[in-house]
Amino acid sequence: MFMGEYSHTIDSKGRLIIPARFREGLGDKFVVTKGLDNCLFVYPQPEWAALEQKLKSLPFTRADARAFVRFFFSGATESNLDKQGRVLLPSNLREYAQLSKDVVVLGVSSRVEIWSKERWDEYNTAAGQSFEQIAEKIVDLL
């Protein structure tokens, strides 16, 4: 399970250090793709395979299902860590998530998320203001 929040920077070549706590869980190869809320999602291979099966079961006759699957898979890339624990983020994914230098790497249960620091701060502030209301709506669902 991934959890925690870590601040890092992307170097001039587009490489990002993945927190040491996340490296073992991600394994030798993992998938980085466009996430929701303009961040990147990073999945270990087993989680990606499970998600892929769920997405394959969506009805391809529905335009919204096709659009979501297209969005999710078109941005996906298989990645790995170098000897220093860095991942090279392709330019199209960096552009999508508006990643330049300062980033926040989050552990979110079964995946890792990569956010631009500016966008994370904005999102976190907005979500924090309504956290109690959100909790009231979903806690009973658990």
Plain-language structure description:
- With about 140 residues, the protein is α+β, with helices and mostly antiparallel strands.
- Helix content is about 40%, strand content about 30%.
- The protein has 6 helices and 8 strands; from the N terminus they run E-E-H-E-E-H-H-E-E-H-E-E-H-H.
- The strands form 2 sheets. The chain has a 6-stranded antiparallel β-sheet, with helices on both faces. Strands 2-6 form a two-stranded antiparallel sheet.
- The protein is globular and about 40 Å long.
H/E element sequence: EEHEEHHEEHEEHH
Strand order, sheet with most strands: 1-7-8-4-3-5
Total DSSP helices? 6
Query: Class by helix and strand content?
Result: alpha+beta
| Radius of gyration from CA coordinates | 16 Å
- Major beta sheet, specifics? 6 strands, antiparallel
Tell me the number of structural domains: 1
CATH class: Alpha Beta
Task: Outline the fold blueprint.
Layout: E1 2-9, E2 15-17, H1 20-26, E3 30-34, E4 40-44, H2 45-56, H3 63-74, E5 77-79, E6 86-88, H4 91-96, E7 102-109, E8 111-116, H5 117-129, H6 131-138
Antiparallel strand pairs: 1-7, 2-6, 3-4, 3-5, 4-8, 7-8
List keywords for this structure.
142 residues; six-stranded antiparallel β-sheet; globular; two-stranded antiparallel sheet; alpha+beta
Briefly characterize the structure.
The protein is built from six helices and eight strands. The chain is an alpha+beta fold and about 140 residues long.
